[in-house]
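Troubleshooting log. The previous structure file for this entry was overwritten by mistake, so regenerating from the original sequence record. Sequence copied from the archived sheet and checked twice against the printout by T.R.
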Amino acid sequence: MRPFVLSALVAILSIASGDMAHGQALTAKEGKLLNGTEIKKTFGGSKITGVNQYGNDYIVSFSPDGKMSGQAIDPDGVVVAEDTGTWSTRRNQYCREWETWFDGFPACFLIVMDGETVKFFGQNRQKVDESTLVRAE
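Regenerated output below.
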């Protein structure tokens, strides 16, 4: 299978599975849709926290230079997985590419801030995930 077709298929499947779990479409009442400059300002030097699909807490740290690191932590406080990658903005979207998580496939998301909640929306404007922002000090 061609690499493009395979990566498109993986992207569609991952977005579709996340959308069905959350079922929320992007609308004006969701909070503030960030542009690329706002995403860089919000994420650079900050962290997000949340719960992954396995029920583990996670922390992702964003460096202003486009590097990121993540940890998944089990309910006992033990780090069960770690990864590094890069993040950027393209066409007013947050884009990420992990070394191993999500099989290293790149993905981009629209970002909506609702208070300290970061909402990630896929290309079809359906919510894929949400996290809590821990702002840089």
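The radius of gyration is 15 Å. Archived copy saved in two places this time.
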